[in-house]
Amino acid sequence: MHSQREQDFQTKKISKLVWDYALPGIVGTMVTAMYNVIGRIFIGQGVGALAISGLAITFPVMNLTASIGMLVGAGGAARISISLGKQDRLTAEKILGNSLLITILLNTVFITLILIYLDPILRAFGASDLTIPYARDYLQIVLLGNLFVSLCYNFNAMMRSSGYPQKAMITMLIGALFNIILTPIFLYGFNLGIKGVAWATVISMFIGMLFVMDHFTRGNNLIRLRWKYIRLDKKIVASILSIGISPFSMQVAASGVAALLNTTLLRYGGDMAVGAYGIINTVIMIFTMIIMGLNQGTQPIIGYNYGARNFDRVKETLFYSMKIATIITTLTFMVGQFFPLLFASAFTSDPELLSITEKGLRITVAAFPLVGIQIVASSFFQSLGYAVKSIIQSLSRQLIFLVPFIIIFPRIWGLNGIWIAMPVADTLSTLLSIFLLIIQLRLLNRMEKEDAQRLQKHPF
Q1: How many folded domains does the chain comprise?
Q2: Which distant-in-sequence residues (6+ apart) come within 8 Å of 203 by Cβ?
Q3: Which one of 99, 101, 193, 364 is least enclosed by Cβ atoms within 10 Å?
Q4: Predicted confidence (pLDDT) per residue in 102-161, tens digit
Q5: pTM for this prediction
Q6: Neighbours of 46 (CB within 10 A)
């Protein structure tokens, strides 16, 4: 079974292989999106417009907590794929054990600090007197269960990267099913309000985590979690973090940008503008998570073939995934331009909130057909282990371009300036992504040529 999986990585038609791995990844990320979407719909319709605004305040904090998962999960999954491509299962299992320990240690420290300083953090991230109670009630529960969330996501990514995409998809679906069932029960049946949505999320993720961890501790799997490797190895830890630092940096930057957005939106549009951004962010997330799932599917293919020096297959996977991603982002653009209220009305019936959301969504997605290249490029560099390029590409939109525009544009165009900043940043960061991709493809071509010359000199 193991050799067949490895044979597929090396010889199976790329389009078929991508969908074999991407479809479970897409389902998994859509399930992740549904955790957020379901909760936000119930909160918006069942609690009210201010609760949606309060939930939007939690986005920067949740991005910070997700950054821990990205640091370990993305780095560990990429390193496992590369190790398996080199036929080095021993190192892959060491990566697995170190990833478990790092996840537990970082979550314990990070979440403790956030809970101690929660109210000042929420104020800094744009909470008002009206919205902070909702944000506090939600986060106090979700943060306590964040270790379960991180373990579930991290080891789900490693399950995919070790050749079990379908099983990874099923474990995420199990958690989502429980979330769909438990959310209305806790919200309406127990009348817990926003706290009920938080409890439903934590319990569902705990159940999902149990299924994921069971995979690595039992059965005849390609790699297993072994007690002797659950100890810190400086070399292994450095290899994980060197790749994970890129998505980690992107999440931290996203948190800072979201905080800046919230405070600027509060200044120029009040609590309703903050809530509108929460809805816009959720609608966009539904589509971008499809691309993230695609990236999760292509990551083990790219990583394995790069480790095996099958550079043609690496490039073919990149081009195919960019094509699919561009189709998805173009669809996002069309939805935002022609059907903004269709999606926004699922979250609220408040006329003021709907009006702000409609206009903001149309402007925000104006350059979205370009964004697919940017998202795929970040994952591509990460899959190859090029941390610096991935960091530069990832941070370009958030810090280099978007932050200055958020500060400058509202002074010229008011609230509209905040929305305008996003497509302008998308355009510039996509151009940078294309430039970095051209450099990387030239490097792959040179490596491919060197291998061919070496084979000519030493055919046996």
Answers
A1: 1
A2: 145, 178, 182
A3: 101
A4: 999 999 998 999 999 999 999 988 888 888 999 999 999 999 888 888 888 888 888 877
A5: 0.78
A6: 16
